[in-house]
Structure formats: structure tokens, C-alpha cells
Amino acid sequence: MSTRTFRVTVRGAFDGLTTEHRAELLAAAPEHDVLHAAFTPEGHLSYDLTARPFFSFRFLDSGEAEEDILEAVERAEAAAQTWLAARGYGYKNLKSQAEDLSQAALSKRQRRAAAHSEA
């Protein structure tokens, strides 16, 4: 069986942040800038608190079967909740979206490369 790669995005909104929490998040904002967003096994948090209270965690996970994506989503949501709770950050409206990269459409460049490798 081949390994499937999953990208999971967990989105939500900060809620009820204290002045101290806002200051912590604003101080750490450069490392959580959306321009540096990446899918990683440990999860990457991005937000722009000066513009809006929303955040996104991006997780990279894997499994062997198509059904494993459900467990990947559960792990990602649990990891996001744990990270937020450990810092005392309130949140609401947590939603997840997952993509199985083995099911993703190939780009034009990828189709060309695949055609050349078969020839």
C-alpha cells in the first residue's frame, strides 16, 4: 500500500483575548505571518491580528487509506486546540478542511513531466 499525504487546515477566530494575550500574539506576529504559511507535521499557525481575529493552522499528515484522512483531521483539530489552550487563548468557530494530495489534480507542468517520464 502506498502512503497518502494529507493537508489539513484548521480555521477559527480568537475570542475573549486579554490585553496580555493580544500583546503576546502581536509580538509573535512576524513568525506567524500568512506569507510564511506552510503545511508542517507539527502545524503552522498564521494570523494577522491587526486586521481581523481569525487564524489558520496548517498541518501535514499521512495515512495509507483514504479513510485515514478523518483521523488526520481529528489529530489536527486536537493539536490546534491543545496549542491554544496551553497558552490560554480563547477561540470559537473551529472548522477544518482536508485534502488528500493523491486525489489532487496535476498542474500543467506536472502533466508534462509525467508524459515525458512515460515516453
Number of helices: 3
Oligomer: single chain
Give the topology string: H per helix, E per strand.
EHEEHEH
Mean pLDDT across all amino acids: 90
Major sheet characteristics: 4 strands, antiparallel
Helicity level, as a percent range? Answer: 25-40%
Unreliable spans are none
Task: Briefly characterize the structure.
The chain has 119 residues and is an alpha+beta fold. The chain is 34% helix and 29% strand.
Structure report:
The chain has helices at residues 19-28, 68-87, 108-118, and strands spanning 4-14, 44-47, 54-63, 91-100. The chain has 119 residues and is of the alpha+beta class. It has one domain (4-118): 2-Layer Sandwich (Alpha-Beta Plaits), CATH 3.30.70. It is elongated, with a radius of gyration of 17 Å. The two termini are 26 Å apart.
Topology:
Elements lengths: L3 E11 L4 H10 L15 E4 L6 E10 L4 H20 L3 E10 L7 H11 L1
Antiparallel strand pairs: 1-3, 1-4, 2-3
Key descriptive features of the protein:
119 residues; single chain; alpha+beta; Alpha-Beta Plaits
